[in-house]
């Protein structure tokens, strides 16, 4: 965000509720309706599924940018795509009223999510991670915004959360402009230069 603001771009960081793809899509769609002017919509990880569905409702969205992100097709779930990665992510489950929340096991967080981030930062990320409801991976996508909106995809070669080959498959299917970087799933922290570059490319190419 600091790099984008320095280059003159206004930035909004939407707090993804992580309650399920259907409800999260509705939340982000509602948030987008409050923004005037052209939007470059960026999604990291599960956020890629959310922008794929929510962008279809807003004609002001001019570009989609996937940062190590899921790009589901209609009828497909994040769980379907995650199952293509191996080994599975070690998770901790917590029963809540009306469902189950999951988070990455703290003991494995760095190796899964932030292998190229220093130990202290990785420990902080693990401690503040927000649990996601299992509906985030079980709700099926209903829109394919990448069919009508140009998309970019940053593929992370050292990713142990979403396998690089799975990222390549989704990006090719979506027709995204792709770049690859030697980085973990926490690429926005370890390689902010690459993330900023891709977002600004999308902004320039869709003016």
TrEMBL record:
Domain AB hydrolase-1: 4-195
UniProt-listed SUPFAM superfamilies: alpha/beta-Hydrolases (SSF53474)
Any one Pfam family match given in the protein's UniProt record, by short name: Abhydrolase_6
Superkingdom per UniProt: Bacteria
GO molecular function terms attached to this record: catalytic activity
PANTHER family hit by this protein: AB HYDROLASE-1 DOMAIN-CONTAINING PROTEIN-RELATED (PTHR37017), ESTERASE_LIPASE_THIOESTERASE DOMAIN-CONTAINING PROTEIN (PTHR37017:SF11)
The name this protein goes by in its record: AB hydrolase-1 domain-containing protein
Taxonomy of the source species: Bacteria, Bacillati, Actinomycetota, Actinomycetes, Kitasatosporales
